[in-house]
Write a structure and sequence with these properties.
mainly alpha; 7 helices; 168 residues
Length: 168
């Protein structure tokens, strides 16, 4: 096995453990719920196995649903994010995606930031729409999506800079 696989397994376990132990217990003002576990899906290698990403996103969402008692909404949101991930790459990076020269855990550029924002926004909107599952709570869904997205992006950027490899 190579080091990229070990890195992804370690990232999967650590982000899931952080989410379950720390971030699942946070809920600010009833609207802000951080979900930085999706950083695993965001940082998954660009040239990695696409079906492996879908399986990993299913397992990630399933474990989150088991610990959150949420009935499958995390699984659905993770699979939707994993499915739309190549389209988000193509939208954010353009030609760089075609040559697969992208490293997300590097210096934050506007392209990387737009990819992270779109990925978190898609995940959170899907999650909160499935959680409410009625049109009468649409304003509540939008408020929760925007506020939770902002908070999750801040946490994700902090985590990216904490795990970023040093260049010397």
């Amino acid at each position: 096995m190579n080091s990229a696989l070990f890195t992804n397994i370690f990232r999967f376990i650590m982000l899931l453990a952080l989410q379950i132990i720390i971030f699942n217990n946070m809920n600010f003002l009833g609207y802000i719920s951080p979900y930085p576990y999706i950083l695993f899906l965001i940082l998954y290698p660009v040239n990695g196995n696409k079906s492996g990403l879908l399986v990993a996103s299913f397992i990630l969402g399933l474990i989150m649903d088991m610990f959150s008692n949420s009935g499958g909404i995390h699984t659905a949101a993770c699979i939707i994010l994993a499915y739309y991930r190549p389209y988000l790459f193509r939208f954010s990076f353009g030609l760089s995606y075609e040559y697969q020269t992208i490293k997300l855990n590097d210096v934050l550029t506007p392209e990387r930031f737009s990819f992270i924002v779109l990925a978190v926004l898609i995940h959170h909107f899907t999650l909160f729409v499935l959680e409410a599952f009625t049109i009468s709570f649409f304003l509540d869904v939008l408020i929760r999506t925007i506020l939770s997205t902002l908070f999750t992006i801040i946490i994700c950027i902090i985590i990216i800079y904490l795990i970023k490899p040093n260049r010397r």
